[in-house]
User: What shape does this take?
Amino acid sequence: MTTFEGSYLGTSAKISAAAVMECKVCWTPYDPAEGDDTRQIDPGTPFLALPDDWSCPNCSAPKEQFLVHDDPGSDAAAEAALLSGLTAKLVTEFTEVWHAKMRDVPIVNNLLQVQAAGWGVHGGRPLGVLISPWFMNLVQLPSPGEDWSDLRAGQKEIMAFPSGDYEFIHNTRPVIGGYKACSLFSPMNDFKTQAQAIEVAEAVMVALFDEANRAETDRSDEIRAAREAELAAQAEAEAAEAAEAEADAGAAPADTVPSRRQLITGGLSDAQPDPADAPRDEA
Ligand code: FE
Assistant: This one.
């Protein structure tokens, strides 16, 4: 079996028939589209189909000395092409919403623009962050074989990630079709630059898959319980004090403990509105 010392660490299984290889001694390429005149190798011959004694046409280094230069047929290349096509559609679609309907809405932060960040394929489905001037959402799209055209807008779904469980809301758009979105920020007024939004989006994608954040969340439950007890005791004392004045001392703020979403967004996400309250058309 042919082995390679290069990018695929000795396995040839991941090299597609379209892989362009290159000699690591003299950088001469082997492009299957061209074949190799010097050895009567026909155009269209994959690198893996070359004779065992084939060697570099320039320096005679053996086949094993060739590295992958570019493999448009590899899984990684196919995935990158899929993601760039999908995120381009998302950006086009929400840029149109922005220009058509959101342009003069006060919650729009005009320092920002629509952009996709941190996209990858997780569990077979494209997942990443969509940044816009009025929201930042985690967005999941169907796998290439799935049809999400009949998703019911507004339907909620809890999804489990290593860092915890997150609520996604189903939606559809004319171009992208069905998608599921989890609100990270809305509005976006705390962001001063697009670069800052991208940095946060990329950090979210890392934090989402970090189990350490699940432990944080569990700890936050303990903190919340302790804080609630403290507030209750305080409220009781104040109620006793203020009883004569008929003051209402029992209304303790509930939003003093970071939510899980705040944890994955580094505490930048305050005062989360329920994503269901946002206009579904827009986010
Ligand atoms: Fe060579």
User: Anything to note?
Assistant: Strands lie at 20-23, 29-30, 66-70, 115-122, 125-131, 136-140, 156-161, 164-173, 177-185. The mean pLDDT is 81.
